[in-house]
Amino acid sequence: MNDQASRPMTPEEEIAEMRSHPRPTLRAVSEGMEKHLYTAQPVLDHGFVRVIDYMGDDAAITQAARVSYGKGTKSVQNDEGLIRYLMRHWHSTPFEMCEIKLHVKLPVFVARQWIRHRTANVNEYSARYSILDREFYIPPAEHLAAQSVVNNQGRGDVLEGEEAARVLEILKRDSNQAYDSYEAMISQDGQAGLARELARMNLPTNIYTQWYWKVDLHNLFHFLRLRADPHAQYEIRVYADAICEMVRDWVPFAYGAFEDYRMGAQQLSGKGVECLKRRLAGEVVTQENSGMSKGEWREFEAVWGDA
Ligand SMILES: Cc1cc2nc3c(=O)[nH]c(=O)nc-3n(C[C@H](O)[C@H](O)[C@H](O)COP(=O)(O)OP(=O)(O)OC[C@H]3O[C@@H](n4cnc5c(N)ncnc54)[C@H](O)[C@@H]3O)c2cc1C
C-alpha cells in the first residue's frame, strides 16, 4: 500500500486528484469556470470557497429565453444583448437554468447569515458525528473595529494599541479555553465521554464549519447583491467577493449584466424620480420641499449629491 493510499488525502492532493482526470462531455462547458473547478480559494484565516460542480453557461440562459420568446428574440441579435435585456426586465427564470455547487468553509456566525438565503440546497458538516477542528476565526488587526456610532448594524474606526491587543487576547483565550473544555468533555480516556452533539454547545460562533451549497444563478445573484454589497458584514462579504470572481469567469455576459443592472445600479423611489426631474428643470429642491423624510433625503443626497 503506498503512502497516499494508507492515509486520507490532504486537501491539495484531493484537488490534484480531482483535476487530473478530465473527461470528454457533450454538456455545456464554461472554459472560465473549468479553471476554478475543485480549487479552493482561501477566505479569512482558515476558510475557503471552491467550486465542486456547475451546470450551464451564458448560452444556456439565452437558449432557455429563446424557448419562451421564440421569434420575438430575433430583434436581439446576440447572446449578450439578450442577457442584458433579461436582466434589465427582471425576466429571471432563464438565469435559473444555470446552477453551481460550492464547498465552503466558514465561521459559524457567518454561516448563520448565509443560511438565511433559503433558495439553496445545503449539506453541512455534522458536529454530531464528527469532532470539530480547533480552528477559530480571529480577525486581523485591521478588521478589529469599534461599534459604529452612526449605524447600529455597522463598524466604526479600527481599534488600536492596547485595546486591540486586549480584544485579540480575549478572543484567542476564550476560543482555546472553550476548545480545551470541548476536548475534555468528549474524551473517552477513562470516562464515558459526553456525546459530540452536546459537547459542541459550549463552542463559540467563531469556530469553523463546512458545507456544500448548491444554488441557481438567479438566486446566487440575489445572494451576491446583498452580501457583496459594501454594507454587508466584512466576514461574509469576502466570501461573496470570492464567488463574484468565479461567476465572472463562469458566465461573463450574465455577470456583466448583473454588475451593471444590479450591483452598479441605484434604486429610485417615485419621490426620488420627481426630485431629480425638478432638479434637472433647474428647481432648487431641499428635504423640506422634497416630500422625503430626513433619512430618505440623506440617502438620496449620498447618491445624487446636494446640488
Ligand atoms: C444588510 C442586511 C442586514 C440584515 N439584518 C437582518 C436582521 O437584523 N435580522 C434578520 O432576521 N435578518 C436580517 N437580514 C437577513 C434578511 O432579512 C434576509 O433573510 C436575507 O437577506 C435573505 O434574503 P431573502 O429572504 O430575500 O433570500 P432567500 O431566502 O434566498 O429568498 C429569495 C426570495 O424568495 C422568496 N422566498 C423564499 N422563501 C420564502 C418564503 N418562505 N416565503 C415567502 N417568500 C419566500 C422571497 O421573495 C425572497 O426574497 C439581513 C440581511 C442583510 C443583507
TrEMBL record:
Record-linked Gene3D superfamilies: 3.30.1360.170
Needed cofactors: FAD
UniProt binding sites for dUMP: Q113, W114, I115, R116, E124, Y125, S126, A127, R128, R200, R227
Cofactor mode of binding and number, as noted: Binds 4 FAD per tetramer. Each FAD binding site is formed by three monomers.
Binding site for FAD: T93, R116, H117, R118, E124, D216, L217, H218, H222
Top-level division of the source organism's lineage: Bacteria
CDD domains: ThyX (cd20175)
One MF term in the entry's GO annotations: flavin adenine dinucleotide binding
Chain segments carrying region Disordered: 1-23
Keywords for this protein: FAD, Flavoprotein, Methyltransferase, NADP, Nucleotide biosynthesis, Transferase
Family classification: Belongs to the thymidylate synthase ThyX family.
Described function: Catalyzes the reductive methylation of 2'-deoxyuridine-5'-monophosphate (dUMP) to 2'-deoxythymidine-5'-monophosphate (dTMP) while utilizing 5,10-methylenetetrahydrofolate (mTHF) as the methyl donor, and NADPH and FADH(2) as the reductant.
Subunit structure: Homotetramer.
Name of the protein in its database record: Flavin-dependent thymidylate synthase
Classification of source organism: Bacteria, Pseudomonadati, Pseudomonadota, Alphaproteobacteria, Rhodobacterales
